[in-house]
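Hi R.,

Here's the chain you asked about this morning:
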Amino acid sequence: MRMQGPLALLAVTGVLLGAPAFAANKKDVQALNQAKVSLTQAIETATKQGNGKAIDAEFEVEDGGGQYEIKVLGSDKLMKYKLDANSGQVTEAEEAHFEKFFTRLKPEDLRNARTSLVEAIGIAEQRLGGKAIEAEAERESDHIQYEVKVVKPDGSTDEIEINATNGQVAER
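And the predicted structure, written out as C-alpha cells:
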C-alpha cells in the first residue's frame, strides 16, 4: 500500500519529530572535545574585542583545526570574529552584513535581553549534559530566545531554547 498526500506527509513528520537527538559529525565532535577553549570563553573574548553583545556563535572545523565564529552586535555595527579553538586568539575580524541578520530581529531587542548568550549556553549545557557547539538568537513571536545545540558525551546532539527575557527553558 502506497501512502499519498497529507497522510504520507503526516507519517514522515511523525518520524522526523520522534527523534530529538541526532549524531553530530564525528570529526567535529572529536575536534570540539580536543579544543582548549570553550564556546563561552570564545564568546567572552569576541565580546571584549567587539565591545558589544554576542548574538551568534558556532564551532567548526576548517583546514583540519577547530575554530569558533562569533557575531557581536556593537553600538553601530555587527562584527564577525573567528577564533582559534586552541589558543583563543582572534584570527579574523570583519564587519558582517547587518541587514541580512536583522530581518526579524531588532538590535534594540537583543541589547535589552536580560539573559546573555553565555548564560543561555550555561543553562543548556547543564540541562542537556554536554558541550555547546552552536548557539544563536532568534525571534519567537513576541520575544527573543536563544537556540543552543549541545553535543553529548555519546556524540549525539540535542537542542534547547532559552527565553532571553527570563532565562527559562522554552517548552517544546
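The CA atoms of residues 120 and 166 lie 10 Å apart.

Let me know if you need anything else.
M.
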